[in-house]
Design goal:
By secondary structure, the protein is mainly alpha-helical. Helix 2 packs across helix 3. The radius of gyration is 20 Å and the shape is globular. 24% of the residues are buried.
Length: 294
């Protein structure tokens, strides 16, 4: 079977020095970006990004602002991903990954912070929070959406450029059996749950951009994988689908009886723990975002 195993992890194969480098590099980048973008003692580039965006669109309306901010993030994120082959040829894979992270991280954190601060702002288009069972249904949908993380997310050492970043072709096992683009499916689920529960124009605007961005990433991701892996990608494409379970009901993919075991692995256990921790940390996220006074 062609492709890499996305959820593979072996403790015996880990190098302690690599994880020390990961911790140091990640901590340093986050510290520098926090100083430049958010901290009161820094140059307040985050404030400049927000005010410049609102000045460009001619309004401070939260829905319009988050729509514009996320659009800038989406164009930057997908644009740099598209330019990756050229950038890596010129600079090398590691420097290009650092550039990608230094652009994407502050923009993403800005969008998240602004969204958290304004997710409940008027106008509220509908209020369905009193509907019986809606809250647990939204919680379950959000929880499951994080199980649809793209397997590249598990490669922390590559994300931090400790190991040489690669454009992986993932083997059709685990989440890839269900959909070839799990990140896009998970994002749609997350947006649907948050939009239905919040009912605000800000949530609708954010979801429109996020879903559109990930729909584009489906096409762009397949294009990039086809260019990078050629026939091997076509073999994976034949037995997978974008729409969840489509390849299964069409008979191109078969779920083994012990399919669930493909999720009982280290990376998914960390995802479950991280998702629950993020849910419990919502009050702290709201408090932290409020400190920005955006």
């Amino acid at each position: 079977m062609v492709g890499d195993d996305g959820a593979y992890f072996s403790l015996e194969e880990q190098n302690l020095l690599d994880w020390i480098k990961f911790t140091a590099a990640t901590g340093f980048v986050l510290l520098v970006l926090s100083y430049l973008w958010f901290l009161p003692s820094g140059p307040h580039l985050g404030d400049t990004f927000l005010t410049t965006t609102q000045s460009a669109i001619g309004t401070t309306d939260p829905a319009a602002t988050i729509f514009a901010m996320l659009s800038i993030f989406a164009i930057s994120h997908s644009g740099l991903a598209t330019l990756r082959p050229l950038g890596e040829d010129i600079l090398g894979p590691r420097p290009w990954r650092v550039i990608f992270a230094c652009v994407s991280l502050p923009l993403a954190l800005s969008c998240i912070s602004y969204f958290v601060n304004h997710a409940h702002d008027v106008p509220i288009l509908w209020d369905a929070r009193s509907v019986p069972g809606l809250r647990p249904a939204c919680f379950i949908t959000n929880f499951v959406s994080f199980l649809f993380l793209y397997p590249s997310t598990f490669n922390l050492l590559e994300i931090a450029a400790v190991e040489t970043p690669q454009l992986h072709l993932w083997k059709p096992v685990g989440i890839i059996r269900i959909t070839r683009h799990p990140q896009a499916v998970g994002q749609v689920m997350w947006c649907a749950a948050h939009t239905v529960y919040l009912g605000s124009s800000t949530a609708v605007a954010a979801s429109v951009v996020l879903v559109a961005h990930h729909l584009f990433s489906v096409w762009n991701g397949d294009r990039r994988l086809r260019e990078a892996h050629g026939e091997a990608f076509e073999r994976v494409e034949e037995v997978t689908s974008v729409v969840p379970f489509q390849a299964v009901w069409e008979g191109r993919q078969e779920l083994p009886d012990d399919f669930y075991k493909e999720f009982l692995r280290g990376p998914y256990l960390l995802v479950v723990g991280g998702t629950l921790a993020a849910y419990l940390a919502h009050p702290f996220m709201m408090a932290g975002a409020a400190l920005l006074r955006w």
